Amino acid sequence: MTAVGTSGSLNAEAFGRVLREHRVRAGRTQQQLADTLRVKRATLSQWETGRHLPSPGKVDHLDTLLGARRALVELAASIRGEVDDEVAAPVAPTPTTLRDVYQALGRAIVDNLVVDGNGSPQGWTRDFRRDLGVTPLSSAYAIKTLALIDAPYVDPHALGTWLHGAQERGGGWTSRGSGPRPEATAVVIDALSHIGGPKPLGPSLDVLESLTSGPARANTFILTSVLEVLARMRPDSAFTRRTVRDLLALRQAEGTLGVWPEKTSGAVGGRPRPSAAHTARAVIALRILRATGAATDADEVDEAVAAGTQWLLSGSHDDVIRENLEPKDEHGRVRDLEIRHFTPALVARALCLVEDPPWPRIQVLLDSLWSFYDAGLGLFVWPNGDVPIWLQYDAVTATRLAAERHAIVPQPRAVPDQQP
């Protein structure tokens, strides 16, 4: 029996394509199917992308649930016969070192650079799998990631010139065509500092200060994005001191500790929940600031960092959460400014900054992080198939910091089939 959608040599990628076709035809989401199978959604995503072949028992269950009439069972059996392997195992080539991962990731980022008819760089789209349009924010994350992995730029001067030209009227940068935003402007300024201009960044920092006002001062993600840049470029400024005070004011009590909540404005249904992603972001930004020697609210900052770190150590904290930065515009319409926080990477990075890092806990977080890695693409991928550029940046910052601080370099690991 020939399975739909396969051609040429049978392999796990062919199985993944057919599995996805049957799932979509059955009207099930990845999460729904994963819940029924009692596996993680990341595991199901790895089956669909061809990184892993499910165990025979799981294939049989999938075939029954999706009404595939033995198509999945026979296809998987053919693949196992071809590779002569009766156990579930990774079938895509798996990099063995961080160097391998970074080289593949760097090539993938450079290959996805958008250029015009003259070959001049025009930046990057915010998702490598979907044509969502180039934005200054996504381009800035690509530049920052390439800088972290020491990958060669296509033309740093041309990229800097393009980014400067992409400013909104009056200054500042946008994320998705929504007008200048503080978090986008902060990330672009940081990227431009990595490639050395080509123009002075002082005026852009002044614009950033004007943008970080109103509702922005009650959003942890925005404040931490801004503070990371200020810690490097204006650690002792009045703007930095105000940002620190605003960030500390967002803490809420969780037991005897102070942590940062999921959101503080526009919340529905009562008290915002404590958030590992937001607490990790705050701990990271405040530690970066303290490393500069800035005296900005030093005692309160140290207490907040210690309490936040202690809370991060108190649980697993590897859930991925969504947040809409600006749920409604001035006319009450919902705006598409949603972000997803890569919690395992953020918490791992925060804990790596501890004086005596808790390596067993960090390794658990890194294992969760690697479950999002697709060796075939050389990129980190969301379970729904999205490949956002900032996901690559978060993964690289966490793994590189772990490698720098740990005697043993953390390496990508094959993620086993999740059994009930």
TrEMBL record:
Signal peptide: none annotated. It comes from the Bacteria. CDD domains: HTH_XRE. PROSITE patterns: HTH_CROC1. Residues 19-73 form the HTH cro/C1-type domain. InterPro entries: Cro/C1-type_HTH, Lambda_DNA-bd_dom_sf, Terpenoid_cyclase/PrenylTrfase. This is Helix-turn-helix transcriptional regulator. It comes from Actinomycetospora aeridis.
